[in-house]
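Just wondering, can you check both lines?
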Amino acid sequence: MSRHFDRNSAARADRISHYEEIMDRVLRITREDGITPGVYECVLPDLEELEDYYTSPEWQEDYTADEEGLLPEGLKRGVLSQDGIDELLDRFRDFRKRPTRSEQLEHLYFNQKQTLDLFLERGAVSREQYDKSLSELTAKLGKEIPE
């Protein structure tokens, strides 16, 4: 048992164990299923709770207690690894920055429409060809034809 283990230390150990379970659950789910939009939505509440803890004074206090040997032996404490928790949160921050499928399709639609507009403007296609191509593009990408 470590030095100075008391009620406060027990509460600290419970807190660390709680966040350790969350981190393990997120790692297990992402290891099994990868990071997909569905997985991201599923683990988002856990990630937010982990990030709140990681950026809190409590995490810093727990980290310091670990460094000073004030935690019980055998307590799993991967959540106190700066590299471990930061890397996990960064993986999801990177995922969050990716455009969604809907955003990708919208971007594709407007790029293709701009190309068609340019072709029409420069006489590379007739109005009839333009209307047909725009109609097909709109149908394939599920967009409404702008007025």
Summary: Residues 7-97 form one domain.
